[in-house]
Amino acid sequence: MIRDDLTGRRFGKLTVIKELGGGRILCRCECGREKEFNKSNVKRGLARSCGSCVRKHTRRDLIKDVTGQRFGKLVVLKELGYRRVLCRCDCGNVKEINKSHLLNGDIISCGCELKKTAIKSREPKLYKGTDINKITTSAATSRSSTGIRGVSYSKRRGKYRANIGFRGQKFELGYFDTIEEAAKARKAAEERLYKPLIEEWRDKNAGQQKKGK
Questions:
Q1: Are 13 and 48 in contact (CB under 8 A)?
Q2: What stretch of H or E contains 77?
Q3: Which of 11, 45, 52, 62 is least enclosed, having the fewest CB within 10 Å?
Q4: Claim: this prediction has a pTM higher than 0.85
């Protein structure tokens, strides 16, 4: 199972059609072209089209003053030169934007729309600010070198390291001589931190289902 699988999700003109692993994804653009992208760049809105179908702006387009014009949620406040403009978003945030991206329609907000989409997509999985799906899976991430979630190997120390993340914090569980010891420490931490919240979430869902009958 791939952590944060984006398959089927749309970002600008791009639709993710496959997770490639190693932080790479395959996308299909509206123009029909398929292209490999850095996953992080797509999520952050830095890549919103294949790049080939984007309308090429003439020098005249780029030097034309667009101060006061609206592009999506952005209103241009000032021309900064070097194909950059200063914009105010409807959310109130002021941000410097690449003028070509603005004219292409690749950027339509300061980034607040992307944040709203990301939060909305996670809402069904969140309980008290925690992604339940994430803490109930035992599958290691694609970057894991040991195949055990929360356990890595330190070449410098020649030991196995265990850690666990919970509610925005990372807890170091120590270094161990064997992978079995590290895995055991990780499992104990899951029992202590994850299990009570998972059981509470399940009890709440069960109660809601009974009410709905």
A1: yes
A2: strand 74-81
A3: 52
A4: no
User: How far is it, in rounded angstroms, from Cα 109 to Cα 101?
Assistant: 11
How far CA 88 is from CA of 9, 33, 110, in Å, comes to 27, 33, 8
Distance (Å, whole) CA 107 – CA 95: 12
Q: What is the CA radius of gyration of the chain?
A: 23
Summarised one tens digit per residue, pLDDT across range 63-87 is 789 999 998 889 999 999 888 899 9
Beta strand pairing call for 14-21 and 24-29: antiparallel
Please state, as a whole number, how many other Cβ atoms lie within 10 Å of the Cβ of residue 54: 18
Please enumerate, as own/partner, the contacts of 112-115 that have beta carbons within 8 Å and a separation of 24 or more: 112/73, 113/73, 114/43, 114/44, 114/45
- Residue 160, judged by CB atoms within 10 A of its CB (0-12, 13-18, 19+), counts as buried
Domain ranges of the chain: 1-53, 59-112, 128-212
- Cα(11)–Cα(108) distance, rounded to whole angstroms? 12
Q: Which residues contact 189 (CB under 8 A, 6 or more apart)?
A: 150, 162, 164, 171, 173
